[in-house]
Amino acid sequence: MLVHSRTARRAVHTLFLVLFLPVFALPLVVIAAASFATAWSGALPSGPTLTHYQDIVRGDAPRALLTSVLTALAAGLAALTLGTWAALAAERLPRRARRLLDGLFLLPVAVPSVVVGLALLVAFSRPPFLLNGTPQIVITAHTVLVTAFAYQSVTAALARLDPAYEQSAAGLGARPAYVLWRVKLPLLLPSLTAAAGLCFALSMGELSATVMLYPPDWMPLPVQIFAATDRGALFAGAALAVALMGTTLLVLLAVSRLRPRATYR
Hints:
Layout: H1 6-34, E1 39-41, E2 44-46, H2 51-58, H3 61-90, H4 95-110, H5 113-123, H6 135-160, H7 163-171, H8 176-204, H9 208-213, H10 221-230, H11 234-264
Antiparallel strand pairs: 1-2
Helix pairs in contact: 1-11, 2-11, 3-6, 3-8, 4-6, 5-6, 6-8, 7-8, 8-11, 10-11
């Protein structure tokens, strides 16, 4: 830590807690409490119950949660593949061309996601690329929205990568494909796993573009949460949100356990 004084460290920790608890932690705690409540009297929810979670098990929520997980896995894998490929290609490009490629990948992040959804809806509503009304258009939208984060993560990792490893392997007669698969990608594994976790988490929570594109038989859980809260079922929506957060955290925990192994390798 950059602060070496004990008093200064305590002040920094106190400031962090003062900013973190009301802005980040407290809203999540309130949502978790609301998922077990039947009423909201005063500052906090009241009337403990498990009805909302029982309704989740009996309703369409498990299917919507599975849809979100499948969408996030497919979009995350596609984004990681495209982002890694583009970052490796950009490494060899001239500076001006690399900036142009950076701008192209950051464009979907620079505009509202609802614009991305509308663009895909218009682009893929006619043959020969007719995806409107299919799960593929939702996965495509999520891929477009999260690929920039995978691209930036891999690009930053490549900038920190010591070129001596690649040069040594090439000097020993290794072909470029062998250097890529046996030297470069293994060194990038920690960054790749971090990018995969980020893409998955962002896809799990995406709503704006999804609302415009999802077909009736492919409804991700964020859309169901929005529908529940829109009709006034706040406590049921809170229970769905807890299920979404819990599933996302479990996957991120599994990814975080892979990162030390990748670093060790």
